[in-house]
Amino acid sequence: MHAWVIWLIAAGILLVFEMMTLTFYLLWLSLGAAVAAIIALIAPEGILLQVSVGCLVALVLTFFSKPLVKRLRASKGFQDIGTELVGKQGVVVEPIEPGQFGIVKIGGDTWSATSFEALRKDELVRVMKRGSTIIEVQRWEEII
Description:
Blueprint: H1 3-21, H2 25-42, H3 47-74, H4 81-85, E1 89-94, E2 102-106, E3 109-114, E4 124-130, E5 134-139, H5 140-143
Parallel strand pairs: 3-5
Antiparallel strand pairs: 1-2, 1-4, 2-3, 4-5
C-alpha cells in the first residue's frame, strides 16, 4: 500500500472522530495528515519529510487557531452549546454502564455520556454536567 493512501486513511479517520468530538484539535491533525498525503504523492520515499510536514501543519493550525477561537468565544452574542445542555432532557440511545460511555440524544444532537448508574436504551435522562465533549447524565425520574 502506498504511503499517500495510508495518510489519506488516517486523515479520514481523524476527521470522523473530529465530527464526533466537536473540537478542532482532531481537525487540525486530519489536515496535517492530508498534507502529509500530498507530500507522499510528491516524494513517496520521504517518510521523514511527510511526518515532519504533517506535524508542522497540525502544530501551526493548533497554535494559530487558539487566539481566533478565544476571540470568537469572547464575542458578543456567542453562546456555547454545551452550557445550554445542563438541565435539559435527553434520551439514551446506547445504554450507559457506570464507568463506561454511552450515547444520549438531546434535541437533534447525540453526545457521549457517562452516568453513576446503569441506564437502558430509551430512558429519559437529565444533563447534570458537561465536560469538553462528554456529558454526565442522571435518570430523569430520580430528579423530579
